[in-house]
Amino acid sequence: MSRYYLNYLDELESEAIFILREVWAQFQNPVILFSGGKDSIVVTHLAKKAFYPSRIPFPLMHVDTGHNFPETIRFRDDLINELEAQLIVGSVQESIDQGRVAEERGKNATRNALQITTLLDAIEMHKVDCAIGGGRRDEEKARAKERFFSHRDDFGQWDPKNQRPELWNLLNGKHFEGEHFRAFPISNWTEMDVWNYILRENIKIPSLYFAHEREVVWRSNSWIPVSEHLKLEDGEKVLTKKIRFRTLGDITITGGIESEADTLEKIVTEVAAMKQTERGNRSDDKRSETAMEDRKRQGYF
Protein backbone atom coordinates (compact mmCIF):
# COMPACT_ATOMS: atom_id res chain seq x y z
CA MET A 1 0.00 0.00 0.00
CA SER A 2 1.51 3.35 -1.04
CA ARG A 3 2.09 5.95 1.66
CA TYR A 4 -0.13 9.04 1.46
CA TYR A 5 1.87 12.27 1.14
CA LEU A 6 0.51 15.79 1.56
CA ASN A 7 2.63 18.62 0.19
CA TYR A 8 3.39 21.29 2.81
CA LEU A 9 1.77 23.95 0.60
CA ASP A 10 -1.40 21.85 0.56
CA GLU A 11 -1.30 21.77 4.37
CA LEU A 12 -0.91 25.55 4.61
CA GLU A 13 -3.64 26.08 2.02
CA SER A 14 -6.01 23.75 3.87
CA GLU A 15 -5.38 25.54 7.18
CA ALA A 16 -5.98 28.96 5.62
CA ILE A 17 -9.20 27.83 3.91
CA PHE A 18 -10.43 26.39 7.22
CA ILE A 19 -9.87 29.77 8.92
CA LEU A 20 -11.63 31.67 6.11
CA ARG A 21 -14.64 29.38 6.38
CA GLU A 22 -14.64 29.80 10.18
CA VAL A 23 -14.74 33.57 9.68
CA TRP A 24 -17.74 33.26 7.38
CA ALA A 25 -19.46 30.91 9.86
CA GLN A 26 -18.88 33.01 12.99
CA PHE A 27 -19.15 36.63 11.84
CA GLN A 28 -21.94 38.65 10.31
CA ASN A 29 -20.05 41.21 8.23
CA PRO A 30 -16.42 40.30 7.47
CA VAL A 31 -14.15 41.93 4.88
CA ILE A 32 -10.74 41.19 3.37
CA LEU A 33 -8.21 43.95 3.99
CA PHE A 34 -6.73 44.35 0.52
CA SER A 35 -3.58 46.38 -0.05
CA GLY A 36 -2.56 45.07 -3.48
CA GLY A 37 0.48 43.39 -1.95
CA LYS A 38 1.35 39.73 -2.44
CA ASP A 39 -0.02 38.59 0.94
CA SER A 40 -3.46 40.14 0.51
CA ILE A 41 -3.52 38.80 -3.06
CA VAL A 42 -2.81 35.29 -1.76
CA VAL A 43 -5.54 35.64 0.90
CA THR A 44 -7.99 36.73 -1.80
CA HIS A 45 -6.96 33.75 -3.96
CA LEU A 46 -7.51 31.43 -0.99
CA ALA A 47 -10.95 32.96 -0.36
CA LYS A 48 -11.81 32.36 -4.01
CA LYS A 49 -10.88 28.69 -3.53
CA ALA A 50 -12.62 28.41 -0.15
CA PHE A 51 -16.03 29.36 -1.53
CA TYR A 52 -15.79 28.08 -5.11
CA PRO A 53 -17.93 27.81 -7.24
CA SER A 54 -19.64 30.77 -5.53
CA ARG A 55 -18.07 34.21 -5.58
CA ILE A 56 -16.15 35.50 -2.57
CA PRO A 57 -19.04 36.22 -0.16
CA PHE A 58 -17.58 39.33 1.48
CA PRO A 59 -16.20 42.66 0.21
CA LEU A 60 -12.58 43.70 -0.13
CA MET A 61 -11.58 46.81 1.84
CA HIS A 62 -8.69 49.02 0.78
CA VAL A 63 -7.34 51.93 2.83
CA ASP A 64 -6.12 54.36 0.18
CA THR A 65 -3.39 56.65 1.51
CA GLY A 66 -3.20 58.68 -1.70
CA HIS A 67 0.50 57.80 -1.85
CA ASN A 68 0.11 54.38 -3.42
CA PHE A 69 2.10 53.06 -6.35
CA PRO A 70 -0.03 53.69 -9.49
CA GLU A 71 0.66 50.09 -10.51
CA THR A 72 -0.93 48.87 -7.28
CA ILE A 73 -4.15 50.80 -7.84
CA ARG A 74 -4.43 49.56 -11.43
CA PHE A 75 -3.88 45.98 -10.26
CA ARG A 76 -6.53 46.39 -7.53
CA ASP A 77 -9.15 47.67 -9.95
CA ASP A 78 -8.42 44.96 -12.53
CA LEU A 79 -8.70 42.23 -9.89
CA ILE A 80 -11.97 43.59 -8.52
CA ASN A 81 -13.44 43.57 -12.02
CA GLU A 82 -12.20 40.05 -12.65
CA LEU A 83 -13.64 38.72 -9.37
CA GLU A 84 -16.84 40.79 -9.69
CA ALA A 85 -16.31 41.60 -6.02
CA GLN A 86 -17.43 44.58 -3.95
CA LEU A 87 -14.72 47.10 -3.06
CA ILE A 88 -14.84 49.38 -0.02
CA VAL A 89 -12.31 52.22 -0.08
CA GLY A 90 -11.33 54.28 2.96
CA SER A 91 -9.50 57.50 2.03
CA VAL A 92 -6.70 58.91 4.20
CA GLN A 93 -6.95 62.15 2.20
CA GLU A 94 -10.60 62.48 3.26
CA SER A 95 -9.56 61.91 6.89
CA ILE A 96 -7.02 64.72 6.53
CA ASP A 97 -9.55 67.04 4.84
CA GLN A 98 -12.07 66.38 7.63
CA GLY A 99 -9.50 67.16 10.32
CA ARG A 100 -9.56 63.61 11.68
CA VAL A 101 -5.76 63.30 11.28
CA ALA A 102 -2.88 65.70 10.64
CA GLU A 103 -0.43 65.32 7.76
CA GLU A 104 3.13 64.57 8.88
CA ARG A 105 5.89 66.96 7.90
CA GLY A 106 9.60 66.59 7.33
CA LYS A 107 12.02 64.45 5.35
CA ASN A 108 10.66 61.10 6.49
CA ALA A 109 6.99 62.08 6.60
CA THR A 110 4.61 59.24 5.82
CA ARG A 111 0.89 58.58 5.83
CA ASN A 112 1.36 55.06 7.14
CA ALA A 113 0.24 55.72 10.73
CA LEU A 114 -2.62 57.90 9.48
CA GLN A 115 -4.21 54.77 8.04
CA ILE A 116 -5.21 53.70 11.55
CA THR A 117 -7.92 56.33 11.91
CA THR A 118 -9.19 55.80 8.36
CA LEU A 119 -9.31 52.02 8.86
CA LEU A 120 -11.16 52.22 12.18
CA ASP A 121 -13.61 54.76 10.75
CA ALA A 122 -14.32 52.45 7.77
CA ILE A 123 -14.78 49.47 10.08
CA GLU A 124 -17.27 51.42 12.19
CA MET A 125 -19.10 52.90 9.20
CA HIS A 126 -19.61 49.54 7.51
CA LYS A 127 -20.21 47.67 10.79
CA VAL A 128 -17.38 45.24 10.08
CA ASP A 129 -17.02 42.61 12.79
CA CYS A 130 -14.00 40.80 11.30
CA ALA A 131 -11.28 42.18 9.04
CA ILE A 132 -9.24 39.46 7.33
CA GLY A 133 -5.60 40.40 6.80
CA GLY A 134 -2.51 38.94 5.19
CA GLY A 135 -0.22 39.37 8.21
CA ARG A 136 2.31 36.60 8.80
CA ARG A 137 4.18 35.79 12.01
CA ASP A 138 7.58 35.70 10.30
CA GLU A 139 7.32 39.31 9.10
CA GLU A 140 8.00 41.15 12.34
CA LYS A 141 8.28 40.41 16.07
CA ALA A 142 4.98 42.16 16.91
CA ARG A 143 3.15 40.05 14.34
CA ALA A 144 4.70 36.92 15.83
CA LYS A 145 2.40 37.46 18.84
CA GLU A 146 -0.79 37.26 16.77
CA ARG A 147 -3.41 34.50 16.88
CA PHE A 148 -5.54 33.42 13.93
CA PHE A 149 -8.46 35.32 15.49
CA SER A 150 -7.08 38.55 16.93
CA HIS A 151 -9.44 40.41 19.26
CA ARG A 152 -9.82 44.21 19.13
CA ASP A 153 -11.62 46.19 21.83
CA ASP A 154 -14.36 48.77 21.22
CA PHE A 155 -11.66 51.38 20.49
CA GLY A 156 -10.15 49.11 17.81
CA GLN A 157 -7.04 48.56 19.94
CA TRP A 158 -4.98 45.38 20.25
CA ASP A 159 -3.81 44.00 23.59
CA PRO A 160 -1.38 41.10 23.04
CA LYS A 161 -1.97 39.91 26.62
CA ASN A 162 -5.73 39.71 26.16
CA GLN A 163 -6.11 37.23 23.31
CA ARG A 164 -8.13 34.01 23.13
CA PRO A 165 -6.44 30.61 23.43
CA GLU A 166 -6.65 28.55 20.23
CA LEU A 167 -6.34 24.96 21.37
CA TRP A 168 -7.31 22.03 19.14
CA ASN A 169 -8.12 24.39 16.24
CA LEU A 170 -11.05 25.88 18.18
CA LEU A 171 -11.45 29.53 17.26
CA ASN A 172 -13.51 31.83 19.47
CA GLY A 173 -14.99 34.82 17.68
CA LYS A 174 -17.45 35.90 20.39
CA HIS A 175 -17.36 39.62 21.06
CA PHE A 176 -19.39 42.46 22.53
CA GLU A 177 -21.03 45.18 20.46
CA GLY A 178 -18.44 47.63 19.18
CA GLU A 179 -15.58 45.15 19.33
CA HIS A 180 -14.24 43.36 16.30
CA PHE A 181 -11.67 40.80 15.23
CA ARG A 182 -8.81 40.64 12.77
CA ALA A 183 -8.26 37.22 11.22
CA PHE A 184 -4.94 36.08 9.76
CA PRO A 185 -5.35 32.92 7.64
CA ILE A 186 -1.70 32.83 6.50
CA SER A 187 -0.12 33.48 9.91
CA ASN A 188 1.95 30.30 9.69
CA TRP A 189 3.28 31.04 6.20
CA THR A 190 6.75 32.40 5.52
CA GLU A 191 7.78 34.72 2.70
CA MET A 192 9.23 31.67 0.95
CA ASP A 193 5.94 29.80 1.34
CA VAL A 194 4.04 32.71 -0.21
CA TRP A 195 6.32 32.85 -3.25
CA ASN A 196 6.28 29.08 -3.74
CA TYR A 197 2.48 29.18 -3.58
CA ILE A 198 2.26 32.07 -6.05
CA LEU A 199 4.54 30.12 -8.39
CA ARG A 200 2.55 26.90 -8.02
CA GLU A 201 -0.85 28.56 -8.45
CA ASN A 202 0.41 31.00 -11.13
CA ILE A 203 -1.21 33.91 -9.27
CA LYS A 204 -1.11 37.32 -10.92
CA ILE A 205 0.87 39.93 -8.96
CA PRO A 206 1.77 43.60 -9.59
CA SER A 207 4.72 44.24 -11.89
CA LEU A 208 6.48 46.01 -8.99
CA TYR A 209 7.56 42.64 -7.61
CA PHE A 210 9.60 41.92 -10.74
CA ALA A 211 12.94 43.58 -11.52
CA HIS A 212 12.49 46.71 -13.62
CA GLU A 213 14.34 49.96 -14.23
CA ARG A 214 13.21 52.85 -12.06
CA GLU A 215 14.44 56.24 -10.88
CA VAL A 216 15.43 55.97 -7.22
CA VAL A 217 17.39 57.72 -4.47
CA TRP A 218 19.44 56.08 -1.71
CA ARG A 219 17.81 56.80 1.65
CA SER A 220 17.55 54.83 4.93
CA ASN A 221 19.72 52.08 3.43
CA SER A 222 17.17 51.44 0.68
CA TRP A 223 16.43 52.53 -2.87
CA ILE A 224 13.37 54.77 -2.48
CA PRO A 225 11.45 55.37 -5.73
CA VAL A 226 11.21 58.89 -7.06
CA SER A 227 7.65 60.23 -7.11
CA GLU A 228 5.71 63.47 -6.81
CA HIS A 229 5.45 62.81 -3.07
CA LEU A 230 9.20 62.50 -2.45
CA LYS A 231 11.07 65.65 -1.44
CA LEU A 232 14.73 65.41 -2.35
CA GLU A 233 17.30 66.55 0.20
CA ASP A 234 20.55 68.36 -0.55
CA GLY A 235 23.11 65.91 -1.86
CA GLU A 236 20.62 63.22 -2.86
CA LYS A 237 21.12 62.04 -6.41
CA VAL A 238 18.46 60.50 -8.62
CA LEU A 239 19.75 57.32 -10.25
CA THR A 240 18.22 54.77 -12.58
CA LYS A 241 18.54 51.27 -11.15
CA LYS A 242 17.12 47.88 -11.95
CA ILE A 243 15.21 47.08 -8.79
CA ARG A 244 12.23 45.20 -7.46
CA PHE A 245 10.18 45.41 -4.27
CA ARG A 246 9.82 42.60 -1.74
CA THR A 247 6.90 44.26 0.03
CA LEU A 248 4.52 47.02 -1.05
CA GLY A 249 3.41 50.00 1.00
CA ASP A 250 3.30 53.71 0.37
CA ILE A 251 5.57 54.82 -2.44
CA THR A 252 7.26 57.21 0.01
CA ILE A 253 8.45 54.52 2.44
CA THR A 254 8.85 51.33 0.40
CA GLY A 255 12.45 50.61 -0.46
CA GLY A 256 13.51 48.44 -3.37
CA ILE A 257 16.46 46.10 -3.78
CA GLU A 258 18.77 45.79 -6.75
CA SER A 259 17.77 42.64 -8.56
CA GLU A 260 17.72 40.76 -11.85
CA ALA A 261 14.75 38.63 -10.81
CA ASP A 262 12.19 39.26 -13.54
CA THR A 263 10.34 35.93 -13.35
CA LEU A 264 8.63 34.05 -10.51
CA GLU A 265 11.26 31.31 -10.70
CA LYS A 266 14.06 33.85 -10.28
CA ILE A 267 12.25 35.52 -7.38
CA VAL A 268 11.92 32.20 -5.55
CA THR A 269 15.64 31.52 -6.04
CA GLU A 270 16.54 35.04 -4.84
CA VAL A 271 14.30 34.92 -1.76
CA ALA A 272 15.78 31.55 -0.76
CA ALA A 273 19.19 33.21 -0.42
CA MET A 274 17.97 36.32 1.46
CA LYS A 275 19.15 36.89 5.04
CA GLN A 276 17.24 40.11 5.74
CA THR A 277 13.52 40.20 6.45
CA GLU A 278 11.33 41.59 3.70
CA ARG A 279 10.25 44.50 5.93
CA GLY A 280 13.88 45.53 6.34
CA ASN A 281 13.35 48.01 3.50
CA ARG A 282 10.31 49.69 5.07
CA SER A 283 11.46 52.98 6.57
CA ASP A 284 8.36 53.27 8.79
CA ASP A 285 9.51 50.17 10.71
CA LYS A 286 12.88 51.79 11.46
CA ARG A 287 11.50 54.64 13.55
CA SER A 288 11.89 52.68 16.78
CA GLU A 289 12.39 49.14 18.07
CA THR A 290 8.66 48.86 18.78
CA ALA A 291 7.31 50.84 15.79
CA MET A 292 5.07 48.04 14.49
CA GLU A 293 3.74 47.03 17.91
CA ASP A 294 2.98 50.64 18.82
CA ARG A 295 0.93 51.02 15.65
CA LYS A 296 -0.83 47.69 16.13
CA ARG A 297 -1.87 48.62 19.67
CA GLN A 298 -3.61 51.67 18.20
CA GLY A 299 -5.50 49.61 15.61
CA TYR A 300 -3.04 49.16 12.73
CA PHE A 301 -3.36 46.23 10.29
Descriptive notes:
- With about 300 residues, this protein is of the alpha/beta class.
- The protein folds into two domains: about 10-195 and about 290-300, Rossmann fold; about 205-285, no CATH class.
- The protein contains eight helices and ten strands.
- The strands form two sheets. The protein has a six-stranded mixed sheet, sandwiched between helices. A four-stranded antiparallel sheet has the order 8-7-9-10, with no helix packed on it.
- Helix 1 (about 10-25) packs across helix 2 (about 40-50) and helix 6 (about 190-200) runs antiparallel to helix 7.
- The longest helix has 19 residues, at about 10-25.
- The chain is globular.
- About 40% of the residues are buried.
Return the string of H and E elements.
HEHEHEHHEEEHEEEEHH
Beta content comes to: 5-15%
Going by CATH, the architecture of the largest domain would be 3-Layer(aba) Sandwich
Query: Largest sheet, order of strands side by side?
Result: 3-2-1-4-6-5
Low-confidence stretches: none
Contiguous helical run count: 8
CATH superfamily of the largest domain: HUPs
Query: Main β-sheet: number of strands, strand sense, barrel status?
Result: 6 strands, mixed
Nearest-angstrom radius of gyration?
A: 19 Å
Name the structural class.
alpha/beta
Give the beta-strand count: 10
Name of the CATH first level of the largest domain: Alpha Beta
In CATH terms, what is the fold-level topology of the largest domain? Rossmann fold
Overall 3D shape: globular
- How many domains in all? 2
Mean pLDDT across the residues is 86
Helix percentage range = 25-40%
For the termini, the CA-CA separation is 47 Å
